[in-house]
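Retro notes (design track)

What went well: tokenization of the new backbones is finally stable.
What didn't: we kept losing track of which sequence belonged to which structure.
Fix going forward: every design gets posted as structure first, then sequence, in one message. First example under the new rule, 89 residues:
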């Protein structure tokens, strides 16, 4: 299933002027463009039409973008804590 016309908007109170956008040729940042925290494993990366980039840490994703990390249940992981691969149908 594909989303039609997906939209993603920040929560009320989000201050776009705080976002530190990187230039199109800049190395991707490893800190949050909004709060400066380390990005962690799964940052949310946004790109402007002009190719500028911003990345958001897990805390900002939850606070401002309503995104919540899904952690696999222990029973769904192997002995190394890695999620099992889906079985081919
Ligand atoms: Zn942040």
């Amino acid at each position: 299933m594909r989303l039609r016309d997906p939209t993603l908007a920040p929560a009320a109170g989000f201050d776009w002027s705080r976002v530190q956008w990187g230039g199109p040729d800049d190395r991707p940042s490893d800190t949050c463009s909004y709060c400066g925290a380390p990005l962690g494993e799964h940052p949310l990366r946004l790109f402007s039409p002009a190719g500028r980039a911003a990345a958001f840490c897990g805390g900002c994703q939850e606070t401002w973008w309503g995104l919540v990390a899904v952690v696999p249940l222990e029973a769904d992981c192997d002995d190394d804590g890695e999620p099992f691969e889906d079985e081919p149908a």
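Added context from the reviewer: Residues 58-65 form the longest helix (8 residues).
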